[in-house]
Write a structure and sequence with these properties.
It is found in: Plastid, Chloroplast. The protein has one domain: P-loop containing nucleotide triphosphate hydrolases (Rossmann fold, 3-Layer(aba) Sandwich), CATH 3.40.50. By secondary structure, the chain is α/β, with parallel strands linked by helices. It is globular. It contains 9 helices and 16 strands. The chain binds adenosine-5'-diphosphate and ribulose-1,5-diphosphate.
């Protein structure tokens, strides 16, 4: 392979692209934000790279329940083929292999299993519970074209299963709690993404997922959220300062009486000057656009859609803000 490009996926409207079917159902509000200087370059978003011999590595960081797996499923399918666990792996593999992509979940590098964390009184978010040396060695090996035997963390038993073979793909995603935590691992990343989901939305997503899919009770989920809060603030949230792309999901400001988890606002921030990454601008580079369509033409209550693109700041960096609001109920 000589060139790879991710244009459709990293246009990243994430799961909420503005399609006709979404416009009709009126549930979410979107806002995108891109850096001002990168916005000057060209109209399409993309990662491109010459990759004759090496694997492109993309990190996706977020807390539990923030949509990492959902995002990865969508992204890998957009990049070709149905991403599935590797052939011959155990039943509880956390890995997804697609035509050009492999997604590994960094939970597999937990150094302490569930019992071990309990004994030591640490959460999975604590760096002490994770083996960053091995994570670094294996991501580095894959990036340089060498297959690895990666551990597997079994989320059902809470223990480590036998390792699985991971071959170097064209594009390797490393998703999890800490892809941007260790500077050695950051240095291996060609692109980094942070999903910054506001507490209201994150907890609603996590509670519904953990109850439906992981058999947890509401009380135990709430207790776990509480127990993890300080480690989230200390070890997970600060990673966003290193991300090239930040996707914020926040409660709406459009409809004050709607519940925060029904109507969402999304802001996309893209840093400038990232090698091989060409962020998006809307309509006309460097311009400011604000658009609110006529409510009478929407199938939802006015203003169901709001769209904005213009200057903004992120961690003191000047960025340009894209905002697009529309409504949709489908999460992914
Ligand atoms: N883009 C989205 N829009 C709406 N809901 C979402 C979205 N992404 C995730 N969710 C909800 O959040 C839950 C947790 O998402 P998941 O991808 O499993 O998170 P993570 O892998 O970060 O723990 C999902 O079951 C889904 O209900
Ligand atoms: O925070 C996470 C990440 O999972 P996710 O992002 O998929 O929620 C999990 O709590 C730990 O990996 C420990 O796993 P467990 O709680 O199963 O022991």
């Amino acid at each position: 392979m000589s060139v790879c490009s991710l244009y459709p996926a990293l246009r990243v409207t994430m799961p909420w692209s503005c399609s006709e079917s979404h416009l009709g159902s009126c549930r979410k509000q979107l806002m995108f934000c891109v850096s001002r200087t990168t916005a000057r370059r060209r109209a399409s978003t993309g990662v491109s790279c010459s990759a004759d011999t090496r694997t492109v590595v993309i990190g996706l960081a977020a807390d539990s329940g923030c949509g990492k797996s959902t995002f990865m499923r969508r992204l890998t399918s957009a990049l070709g083929g149905v991403a599935e666990p590797p052939r011959g792996c155990g039943a509880y593999s956390n890995t997804l292999v697609g035509d050009a992509t492999t997604v590994i979940c960094l939970d597999d590098y937990h150094a302490l299993d569930r019992e071990g964390r309990k004994e030591k009184g640490v959460t999975a978010l604590d760096p002490k519970a994770n083996n960053f040396d091995l994570m670094y060695e294996q991501v580095r090996a894959l990036k340089s074209g060498v297959a690895v035997e990666k551990p597997v963390y079994n989320h059902v038993t809470g223990r480590l299963d036998p390792p699985e073979l991971i071959r170097p793909p064209n594009i390797l995603f490393i998703e999890g709690l800490h892809p941007l935590f260790d500077p050695r691992i950051r240095s291996l990343l060609d692109l980094s993404i942070y999903l910054d989901i506001s507490n209201e939305v994150k907890f609603a997503w996590k509670i519904q997922r953990d109850m439906a899919e992981r058999g947890e009770s509401l009380e135990s989920i709430k207790a776990s959220i509480k127990a993890r809060k300080s480690d989230f603030d200390m070890y997970i949230d600060p990673q966003k300062q290193y991300a090239d792309v930040i996707i914020e999901v926040l409660p709406t400001r459009l409809i004050p009486d709607k519940s925060a988890t029904e109507v969402l606002r999304v802001r996309l921030v893209m840093r400038e000057g990232v090698k091989h990454f060409t962020p998006v601008y809307l309509f006309d580079e460097g311009s400011t656009i604000s658009w609110t369509p006529c409510g009478g033409k929407l199938s939802c209550s006015y203003p169901g859609i709001r769209f904005f693109y213009g200057p903004d700041t992120y961690f003191s960096d000047e960025v340009t803000s894209h905002s697009k609001s529309h409504s949709s109920t489908s999460p992914s």
